Structure formats: structure tokens, C-alpha cells
Amino acid sequence: MTTLGEKIRALRKEKKLTQSELAGTELTKSMLSQIENGKATPSMKTLHYLADKLGCDASFLLEEDANELATLVQEMEQHIQDLRFKEVYEILHPIVHDALPSTLNTARLYKQYAKVKTYTGNYDVQTYIEKAIIIFEKYALYRESTETKLISYYSLFRQKQYNECLQLIHSIRDEYNGKHLEMDLIMQIELFWYEAILLLALGNYEECKAILLQTLHFSKKNQVYYKMDEFYRILSFQAIFVKDTEGYLHNLEKSKQFAIFTENNLSLTTLHLLEGYFHNTITKQYEIALSHVETYGRELIIKLEPEKNGFYYLEKGKALYGLGRYHEALHELNQVTIPTYTHHPIDLALLTTAGSFRALCYMHLENTEQALYEAKQAHNAMRDYHAPMFSSFTEETLQMIQKL
């Protein structure tokens, strides 16, 4: 069972209160410490005082939470971190349909269930999101409530409802302002991140850049360096769109610095792929591009161990194409698939260009029929994405092959 003292300590830390701040003038810090450690029991007057300071009902502090639910929440969280979404879904599906007590661990199970349903492509999650939110807000746990609301963001984004996603972010900010709540710094950065990704999906590149720069300024001002490497990486990618070599090099170096600072091996490895893209696209130094891409592939296996993805095969194929090694390029480009975790239209559009590069390879190998087929397929698929920098390439490739 979750004890009274454990609940008080958890809520105190959630609200970033010290023991002295929570104790106030009602009780001593020493007495509060004994209560939190289960060595003393508060009077009803003290209990109501603590509940009021913690923003919850006294009844919540007194209610017992089944140990089985607490253990299950911990197990499911580990499964989610291990990307075992289907397993979590199968375990939780019968449980969340039973009558469960209105406790925090029940809310967390609803939250976990909604998350894994979304990740597995089932977007009928609003009922469970709302159930979790009601419980979290009953106990004034607004951060957990906000995290739960953002599951709707993933669901809407994957269904390409980008404007609805933007409205959700604005509504969360408006709610905090309306209730005079203070949003923690990490959540503020998260919302900036989601907004930047949305603006990129909508094709509002200048607004996206402005949000990214605003977030970097906000982070530096508050000395919080969460996701800094990712913000700089997106800025460097955007610089390539407008052929801003200086901007690309500056932001890439910054991304490297923060990835090293945070010991983020995945981020450092991903930068090799970005450098491959840069040399394939801007400098046309295909040997250098190929070296970076192959380094990316080796480090994925040695350090991180996931399978190589479509971006790896695309950039390797492009480098080989640039070197005139058309058969080898086709071998790589034919392995380009869309990873299950990829839903952003920019990423999808980039991967779609693999068809145009296959078409160019076939053109050089004098297989005009297959070249035309690949070019048409890529051009038609590109219509689903708002990505002018890629759609113009597929269109030009098709027009060139049609003239043969």
C-alpha cells in the first residue's frame, strides 16, 4: 500500500516545496519529516492543513492505494520504455474496462493505456485520457494532467490534424494562465518543441525558426538545457533548406556540443547522418557524405543496436549515386522503408525522394521504362506532403525522364 507519508512526500516534491515551506507555521520541519517517514501520524487539523497546502482533499491522503496497481504501473512503465507497446496493450486492455478505484495509480494506468493505443495506431483513446485527467486534476497534479492531454497531440498528429494539435497547445497554455498556475520549465520547453514541430509540418518555416530561437533564449535564460541538441539539430536542417552553409555549420556545432554535454550517444550518432545529407545536397562531396553515413551505420550497431532505418539507406544510396556507382546505389535505395515511428511530413517527403533517385539510377543504366515508373510513383506520393524542397525535386526528375 502507498502510505500517508509517501503520498505527502510525493505531492510535496511534485509541487517543488521544501519540508520547511510545507510545514510553514503549522508544524515543525522535524514533525513533517517524521510524518513523511511514517514515524508519526498527523492530527486531523494538521492533515487538513497539509492537504490545503498540497492542493488536494484530505480524503485522498487517507485513501489506500492497492499495492497491486502500484506494482502494475511500475511494470508497464518499464515495458513502455522498452518499446513493448503491444504487450502493455494486451495486459491493460481487460483491466481498464473493469471498475477501478479513483486513485492516482488508476489514472496512471489509463494514461499508459491511452499512450500505447496511440503508439500502435489505435486513436480511440479520448475516454481514457479524460478519465485520467479528471483524477489528476482532482488532486491538483497538473503536470501529469498536461502530459496526459499531450497524448491527444500524438493521436491528432498521426492523423495529420495539425491545426487541431496547435489548438491543443494553445488551450493548455490558456488553462495554466486562466487558473494562475505556474508551468514548470521542462513542460514549457516541451510545448515549444511540439509547437515548432507543428509549424514545420504546416510549412511555416520562418515561424518554426522563430519558435526554436525563442526556446533557446528561454533555456539559456533559465539555465535549463533540456533538448538543446535537438533544437540546434532542427535549426541546422532548416539551414540546408535555404542553402545557408554558415548557419548549418554553426547550428551543427552547437548541437554536437550539447549532445556531448548530455552524453547523448543517439544524438551524436544522428549528426553523422545529417552531415551526410548536407554533403549529398549542398557540397556534392559524395565521398565525405558516404563516410559520414557509414559511420552512422556502424555506430548504430556498436553503440545503440537498433536496426538501420530508411534514412540510412537513402543517404548511402544518394552518395553512391553521386559517385556514379548506380548498381550499388540501387541496392541501397531499394531498402528504403518508412520506419514505424516516422510520421512527420518532412521526414516522409525526404524518404519519398528515394523513388526519384532510383529513377535516376535506372535512367543512367538505360532502363527508361523502370525509370519512368519510379519517377511517377515518387511524384504522386509526394502530393500528400507540404514539402516544396522535395516536391520540386521529384517533379523535375519526372519531367527530365519524360523527355527521354
TrEMBL record:
Keyword Secreted: no
Domain of life: Bacteria
CDD domains named in the record: HTH_XRE
Ranges of residues in domain HTH cro/C1-type: 8-61
Entry keyword Cell membrane: no
InterPro entries xrefs: Cro/C1-type_HTH, Lambda_DNA-bd_dom_sf, TPR-like_helical_dom_sf, TransReg_Diox_bact_type
Alphabetical keyword list: DNA-binding
The protein, known as: Helix-turn-helix domain-containing protein
